[in-house]
Amino acid sequence: MRYRRSVMPTLPRRIAHLDMDAFYASVELLRYPELRGLPVVIGGRGIHQPELLTDGSRRFARLRDYVGRGVITTSTYEARALGVFSAMGVMKAAKLAPEAILLPVDFDAYRHYSRLFKAAVRAITPQVEDRGIDEIYIDLTNLPDDTPTLARRIKQAVKDATGLSCSIGISPNKLLSKICSDLEKPDGITLLDEGDIARRIWPLPVRKINGIGPKAGEKLAALGIATIGQLADAEPALLQEHFGRSYAEWLHQAAHGIDERPVVTYSEPKSISRETTFERDLHARRDRALLSEIFTRLCTGVANDLRRKGYLGRTIGIKLRFEDFRIMTRDLTLPEPTADPVVIRRAAGECLRRVPLEKKLRLLGVRASALSPDSASQEAVESPQGELPL
Ligand code: TTP
Ligand code: MG
Ligand code: MG
């Protein structure tokens, strides 16, 4: 006997793509607010670090001072107005905008703000797909509010958490939303449904479709296909001849704004741990010095992992495996969450004292759980030194 699948009314999908505005440059402007409104380029090295002068002001490097083969990671919109964009050689950019400010790249800072903005959105909904340092997809379908309200709320949450602006595109799928988020940058909200495809999407160049790279773009251009609309009109047989069946089918669907891919969420880690199996079984007393060294290294490793991933842990635990393979765990919960290696080492040490250690040990592990995102950064950014807490 066959059962019919129960028919649930499915809501039309509402998928958002959020992309931070001039991301690396905007993070730098948080610590150097005096550069707001100026053409600023990120792509320098350590020697281009701003110099703090005795009167408290800073001296910044200029593009014209640059010698070398580096490329620009990004630029402020003021620099873009002068023709300076991502991936351009810095020396070439210096010809276009010699007076533009040049700052060195600080990936740790950008990763830190990346975690902050993503955590802010995840506090609104966990339906978030991470797509790299400055962008995410968000599935809004099952949220109760209307789409413009949600878009404003998400942008405000990102602003409150980071001080940064972003642009959001919302449509029935990821493909269209990715295109949309770029249409009204910076600080934009672009809503689009199927009825808008012909007017807003078809006039755009084919390269605006995520998945049509420089090579496919050139091949399409050679076929006289420049816009998404022309691609939508192209003969399927012609596309198949030049691109093979599956890519040709995808091109056709993409040009018609069809994309069924789901938003793939990633769940936050529940714990972060490090463990090691010893080369030979160790005795708690006789191998005390070595055990202590390994134990400290594990704690430092957990602390570093927490910091790198942007979490604090409140519960610290240990795991032991004895020579007879029995496993024992102990943990304790701290009054405050931490990523401090000294605090973690002390807590783990207390756990260890609660274990009888007559037998030899095969394995030792340290774990931090009850994780929370580490958002203790804003104060430091606003501190007079302007140093990021990294
Ligand atoms: P993007 O989102 O492409 O650019 P953006 O955030 O700087 O500017 P927009 O307002 O147009 O979104 O990239 C995000 C970050 O990735 C960017 O700030 C720097 C880095 N990046 C590179 O390092 N090299 C590149 O070629 C690009 C495109 C980006
Ligand atoms: Mg961006
Ligand atoms: Mg981006």
Describe the structure.
The structure is a single chain. Helix 4 packs across helix 5 (147-162) and helix 12 packs across helix 13. The chain has 4 domains: 15-19 and 109-197, Reverse transcriptase/Diguanylate cyclase domain (Alpha-Beta Plaits, 2-Layer Sandwich), CATH 3.30.70.270; 24-105, MutS, DNA mismatch repair protein, domain I, CATH 3.40.1170.60; 204-255, 5' to 3' exonuclease, C-terminal subdomain (DNA polymerase, domain 1, Orthogonal Bundle); 271-373, 2-Layer Sandwich (Dna Ligase, domain 1). The chain is globular. The protein has a 5-stranded mixed β-sheet. A 4-stranded mixed β-sheet has the order 5-7-2-6. Strands 12-15-13-14 form a 4-stranded antiparallel β-sheet. The protein has 390 residues and is an alpha+beta fold. The chain is 36% helix and 23% strand. It contains 14 helices and 15 strands. The structure holds thymidine-5'-triphosphate (TTP) and magnesium ion (2 copies). The site of thymidine-5'-triphosphate has 14 residues, from strand 1 and helix 1. Thymidine-5'-triphosphate binds next to strand 1 and helix 1. Its EC number is 2.7.7.7.
Q: N-to-C SSE series?
A: EHEEEEEHHEHEEHEHEHHHHHEHEEHEH
The low-confidence parts are 377-390
Question: Any idea of the CATH topology of the largest domain?
Answer: Dna Ligase, domain 1
State the helical fraction.
25-40%
Which molecules are bound besides the chains? Answer: thymidine-5'-triphosphate, magnesium ion
Q: What distance lies between the first and last C-alpha atoms, to the nearest angstrom?
A: 63 Å
Mean pLDDT: 92
Secondary-structure map:
Blueprint: E1 15-20, H1 23-31, E2 40-44, E3 51-52, E4 58-59, E5 61-62, E6 74-75, H2 77-80, H3 90-96, E7 101-104, H4 107-122, E8 128-130, E9 135-139, H5 147-162, E10 166-171, H6 174-181, E11 189-191, H7 197-201, H8 214-222, H9 228-233, H10 236-243, H11 245-255, E12 271-282, H12 288-309, E13 311-322, E14 327-338, H13 341-353, E15 361-373, H14 378-382
Helix pairs in contact: 4-5, 10-11, 12-13
The structure holds thymidine-5'-triphosphate and magnesium ion (2 copies).
